[in-house]
Amino acid sequence: MCFFGIGAFATASLFGAHGGAFEIGMVWGITIAIAIYAARNLSSAHFNPAVTLAMCLSGRTPWKDLPIYVLAQMIGAVIAAFVLWIFFAASVQHFFEMSGADMTVVSKASAIWCNIFPNTPNGVVSMPVAAFAEGVGVFILITVIFALTEDANLGKPSNNIAPLFIGFTVTIIIGTVGPMTNAGLNPARDLGPRIVGHLVGWDKIAFSWDAIIVYTIAPLLASVCAAGLLKVIEPLQKLGYK
Questions:
Q1: Which of 51, 59, 160, 161 is the most buried (most CB within 10 A)?
Q2: C-alpha torsion 14→17→21→27, nearest 10
């Protein structure tokens, strides 16, 4: 999943292959839908520590499964990021030669493995705004996942097409939040590439407190909020379901 999503961002950054955040969001959305279809009978198809945490808090996933899921998510993200480095290392070097940048400064190339903000031309996205944007995006995503998988929700679509709606939701969120923060929305998707970025030479910029707050802490806090909302709404849904 990370391979295709981050790969789309890499081709956009290095080759101008996509028109904007919405097109990259489409790649992410389609990839996530396919991944859910492929894995949901083998696992719960979370792919995201924030989603796994929300599922544990809501009682849908046992707490003992949390470390296993998160470890698998992190390993997958690291492997995907490493393979992408093999793909694009020469292109990154060419980008440095053409732009005069290097691995000590933030650039379009570094953003592929080390998510950054602001990334707008006028740089108006502050850390609190970026963290809030990431948190809202994750909160919406998890709330939609809960709504699509709650049996008491009489308006939910068939389970056969629920992954498509989850993918569409990701696409819409990336189209909205992406221009501000690159739309991490997933601590594993963010931390895995950062680890690889640190190892290949971006050690001075790979990790910062601002990045940790925006791309890891904010999504996890949003996960807690989404699970809390479910605890309030779920009894009312079940009351109406009866």
A1: 51
A2: -110
CB 91 within 8 A of CB 112: no
Show the domains of the chain with their CATH numbers: 2-241 (1.20.1080.10)
- Rounded alpha-carbon distances, angstroms, from residue 115 to 32, 185, 190, 212, 226: 19, 11, 7, 10, 24
Helix (H) or strand (E) holding 207: none
Task: For 104-149, write each residue's pLDDT tens digit.
Answer: 998 989 999 998 876 655 567 889 999 999 999 999 999 999 999 8
Residues 39 and 73 sit within 8 Å (Cβ to Cβ):
no
What pLDDT, in 10s, does the model give residues 201-217? 999 899 999 999 999 99
Contact 118, 130 (CB under 8 A): yes
Q: What angle do CA 214, 218, 220 make, to 5 degrees?
A: 135
Can you tell me the distance from the alpha carbon of 12 to that of 19, in angstroms, rounded to the nearest whole number? 8
Q: What is the pTM of this model?
A: 0.93
Cβ–Cβ under 8 Å, residues 27 and 181: no
Residue 64 exposure: Cα atoms within 13 Å on the Cβ side: 0
